[in-house]
Amino acid sequence: MIISHRNSGAAKINALMNQVKVVLQGIVNVSPDSFSDGGLFCDSLAATHQAQKLVNAGAHIVDVGGVSTRPGAPEVSAADELQRVMPILRSLRGVLPSSTLISLDTSSPIVALAAAEENLIDIINDVYASKRYDTLQHSESQQTTAHIAAHFDLGLILMHMQGTPTSMQSNPTYKDCLAEVCEFLDERLKFAKACGVNWLALDPGIGFGKTLENNLSLLSSDGMRELIALGAPVLVGLSRKSFLLKLAEKQGTLPKFESAVAERTWRDLQSALWEASCIERGARIIRTHTVKTFR
């Protein structure tokens, strides 16, 4: 039997949603190979400093991820993921304000359970939408991150992805991307609710097995309207994604970058414009590398 700490992260995120128009979720990647900032925040001191910087800028949630999900990224064992995230989660829980929520970007029930048992997280952010099963210690049945979220009363974010990070951008193919994404998220929403999860958000997975046209369809007014109609808060994570470059290239507006820093700055500016647009169209949560002020 799993021992529960009754943290009720679900209640905390629900209360936050009622207090603010848009919830800002700041990204802290602690993997060595993330597409934007791999290796920058792998030790506890650097990760904690980055988290505090995000909170000072206005982040309501700090999202910690120990596995890169960039296109072509290899899989990582639960043991390696635990080694990456647990020291940092412990550090953040000790220094961040009590009003700041911590989410764990993981699809591993084993990793989610370890963090939940130590009361280190409020939300599980699962790019595989709770489709991965593991047999957990002291449990006879296989469980998903939805089962962990339900047992510990954590929030749960479910994302759509076609394929896996290793192959997802090889040849994304849909008959109707928006319809298929909505159908998938609706099914996973019902699954998580059946597991007993009390707070859920849905992420269309921008850049996860999507072409430029697919991404634009999901981010359009019609796309956001269909996603919102599923009945859960919509999270948009487009920060620094490659579709920004592809769109500018297609439009003939892509500048020449003198350095990686210059490109990252440009991506942040473009991200801010799109994030503001998504908020106007009803997005309730913005997952981002650089926290901005939205009116």
What's this model, at a glance?
Helices cover 42% and strands 14% of the residues.
Give me the number of helical elements.
10
Q: Say what oligomer this is.
A: single chain
How much helix is in the residues?
40-55%
As a percent range, the share of strand residues is 5-15%
Q: What fold name stands as the CATH topology?
A: TIM Barrel
How would you write the strand order of the largest sheet?
A: 8-7-4-3-2-1-10-9
> How many structural units, i.e. domains?
1
- Give the low-confidence spans: 1-5
Structural overview:
The strands form two sheets. This protein has an eight-stranded parallel sheet. A two-stranded antiparallel ribbon has the order 5-6. The chain has 295 residues and is of the alpha/beta class. Residues 1-5 have low confidence and may be disordered. The protein has one domain (9-288): TIM Barrel. The chain is globular. α4 (109-117) runs parallel beside α5. It has helices spanning 9-19, 44-57, 78-95, 109-117, 145-152, 177-195, 212-219, 221-228, 243-251, 260-280; strands at 23-29, 61-65, 101-105, 123-126, 134-135, 142-143, 155-159, 199-203, 235-236, 285-288.
